[in-house]
Amino acid sequence: MKFNNLFKPGKIGKLTLKNRFVMGAMGVGFAEISGKPTQRTVDYYEERAKGGFALIITEVTRVQHDEFCTPFEPSLALDEYIPDWKKVTEAVHAHDTLIFPQLHQPGRQYTKTVLGHDTSAPSPLACPVFDETPHELTTEEVWDNIRLFGDAAVRAKKSGFDGVLIHSGHGYLVQQFLSQFTNKRFDEFGGSLENRARFACEICKDIKKKCGDDFPVIIKLAAEEKVPGGLTISDSKIFAKYFEEAGYDAIEVTLCTYASLDWMSAPEDLPMGFNAYNAEEIKQGVSIPVIAINRINTPEIAEDIIASGKADFVSISRQSLTEPAFPNKTKEGKISEIAPCVQCLQSCMGYMTDPDYLSACCLVNPRVGHEAEYTFDPVAEEDIKDVMIVGSGPGGLYAAYAAAKRGHKVTVYEAQDKMGGQMRIAPYPPAKSLFAAPLRYWIQEGKKAGVEYILNTEVTKELVEKNDPDVVVLATGSVQAKPNIEGIDGENVLMAHDVIEGKVRVGRKVLIAGASLLGLETADFLRERGGRHSTLIDMIDTVDYGILGVGTHLKARLDSNNTEYILGATIKKFTSDGAIYDQNGEEKETGGYDNVVIAMGNKSYNPLEAELKDLDLDLYVIGDAVKPGQANKATEQAAAVAFKL
Q1: Dist. CA 510–CA 519, nearest whole Å
Q2: pLDDT single digits (tens) 518-548
Q3: C-beta pairs of 603-608 under 8 Å, 24+ apart in sequence
Q4: What is the rounded end-to-end Cα distance, in angstroms, of the chain?
């Protein structure tokens, strides 16, 4: 397939972009807590500039120092950070790439607990996520906020940015003025469509006044909010016309608010490019360029959007985390070499909303945030090592690929006749088919780098001694836990992995022991196959469906099948058609099931570590062999090993 349209130059204002690829804004959290950009910020954006993007949009960037939506949100609210931003823009410009900051005010969408003061909004309506009533901005305070955007744009220009983007999506302050869902005012900033557009329009006018008409300004517009009474495409088509009249040079078309965040980082059960129809609707009414965004993960989808006239540019967001060189590999026809985003959200959205992390990474590309530290520069000849990797799950495969690409001699041993570990069956449940793609990618690229893969071979101490490697990486993973509960060996009792792999036949009515992700995905798997009905039983009190988007869609699918739950229950015995359990100090029984399926977690499988400790070699244990967890932990640990060898 040819991608001619993607590599035609395009214009935004007076700027010429070398191709139609925009790197979309995503929170990564690499600034200092003060908002000062760091060397990690520089390295992260430069890596994507090297990869061929025509324009990079930064993550949300403060226009007011004490207003932000993540603790490590960078800032253009202070003159003192201009020299640090210059390092970012100069690094990006060195690769013939343009860069805009995404100027941002959170409005009601954060919390006083972190900010240290009340949030502010057009009207005193609490965000459904944070449930804190904001301060209602006075008319004068609204004008003050307009000037804050203009002043931040001045700093951006002084920092070497080529233009700015105003964030009027995902429910933040500018969008809050546009939407009747959040704006109940009756001054010049409320009521009519014209009045609700005024805040965004005056921001553009203030920037143009301060920075010049030739300084481009893009607006990121939520075409739909996906909430009752919120913005619809009908509203947004009119707002787009107002924005063009006000002087905006392009519109990036997104969707949602915090009350509908599962649409922002959509999981696999929404089709690729699903929001392009909104970009097409907006484009019909304006003459300025339109940028499409949301799940544009393949060159084919991107080319179709441009070729069919739905948009003038495509914004590649989470896929640019996974594959910084997406444009260059597309141009070179190396489509199969593009590292695939699987929309898992584990290390991007998952980490950004986890207080223990608050900065992003990537399951498939754990170099995110470590671009300068983890390089594929070849090792010196005298430093080449013989590396033996035991296990071919995500940790083992990534370690093999990365180490071999750096020049080490790598052999992977797998006890089974197929590679992939537990990730091999991860694509089997609904809306998870993309999980097969990283396995293909790591094996393909590993083979190119010289990795030897040996199957059907159980590694023993004797085999290690015979091969005499310099390094052994134990990536032996985990196995399903099978607790010592009476009746667990009954003929009606099955293991979840066997069910998902199709090794056993399951009846129509099923009791699943375990309501963690394995149990939930097993229920979803059974729902899809003939509408089998599941009841999940667990000692937990509340079900955690997982990361927003992936989890909310999983819950919706299970609810559609009337999936039932028995929570706060400790199983005492499995019977021929169910289980006996304790709940609130009372013994109870549930029955009438064709099968019981065990989904009670995993336990580490690591039989070799103790045996190999005394050998003269470097020994590492990674992934589930250390502690069962998500696949992103395995690849992060694999990277930490592979890039230090």
Answers
A1: 11
A2: 999 999 999 999 899 999 999 999 999 988 7
A3: 603/478, 603/479, 603/480, 603/481, 603/628, 604/477, 604/478, 604/628, 605/476, 605/477, 605/478, 605/479, 606/474, 606/476, 607/476, 608/390, 608/459, 608/460, 608/461, 608/464, 608/472, 608/474, 608/476
A4: 39
Query: What one-letter code names the amino acid at 156?
Result: A
Cβ within 8 Å of residue 114, ≥6 positions away: 71
CA 241/CA 238 separation, integer angstroms: 5
Per annotation, catalytic residue among 81, 110, 172, 581: 172
> In which residue are the tokens 């603790």 written?
71
Task: Give, to the nearest 10 degrees, the angle between helix 82-93 and helix 39-50.
Answer: 20
Quickly tell me which residue has 């336990």 as its tokens: 603
| Cβ 521 vs Cβ 554: under 8 Å | yes
Are residue 310 and residue 238 in the same domain, yes or no?
yes
Query: Does some domain include residue 562?
Result: yes
- ∠ CA 475-514-355, rounded to 5°: 65
Is the same domain home to 113 and 130? Answer: yes
Question: Quick one: 241 exposed, middle or buried, by C-beta within 10 A (0-12, 13-18, 19+)?
Answer: middle
Residue tagged 């196959």 (tokens)? 529
- Which domain does 126 fall in, by range? 5-22+99-341
Joined tokens for residue 506? 């399951």
Phi and psi at 394, nearest 5°, equal: -60, -40
CB of 225 within 8 A of CB of 260? yes
Q: Is residue 336 part of a domain?
A: yes
Assess whether 206 and 161 both reside in one domain. Answer: yes
Does residue 172 have an active-site annotation? Answer: yes
Give the integer Cα–Cα distance in Å for 268 and 434. Answer: 8
Closest CA to 6 of 334, 301, 435: 301
Q: How many domains does the chain have?
A: 3
| SS3 readout for 29-57 | CCCCCCCCCCHHHHHHHHHHHHCCCCEEE
Q: How many residues are present in the chain?
A: 645
Asked whether residue 94 is assigned to any structural domain, the reply reads no
Strands (E) located in 368-507: 386-390, 409-413, 452-454, 471-474, 478-480, 493-495
In whole angstroms, what is the distance from residue 430 CA to residue 526 CA?
10
Q: Are strands 564-566 and 533-537 parallel, antiparallel or unpaired?
A: parallel
Residues 6+ apart with CB under 8 A from 323: 51, 329, 338, 339, 340, 341, 365
> How much of the chain is helix, strand and coil, in % rounded to 5?
35, 20, 45
> What's 309's domain CATH number?
3.20.20.70
Q: Quick check: 491 and 504 in contact, CB under 8 A?
A: no
Residues 267 and 230 occupy one common structural domain:
yes
Note whether residue 232 is domain-resident.
yes
417 and 522 fall within a common domain: no
Question: What pLDDT score does 267 carry?
Answer: 77
In a shared domain, residues 171 and 253 = yes
Q: Are strands 10-12 and 15-17 parallel, antiparallel or unpaired?
A: antiparallel
Question: CA geometry: angle at 421 spanning 419 and 424, to 5°?
Answer: 75
Chosen domain end from 285, 313, 341: 341
11 in helix, strand or coil? Answer: strand
Q: What is the pLDDT of residues 255-285, one digit of tens each?
A: 999 999 888 877 788 889 999 999 999 999 9
pLDDT < 50: residue spans in the chain = none
Q: Measured between alpha carbons, how far is 27 from 621 in angstroms, rounded to an integer?
A: 31
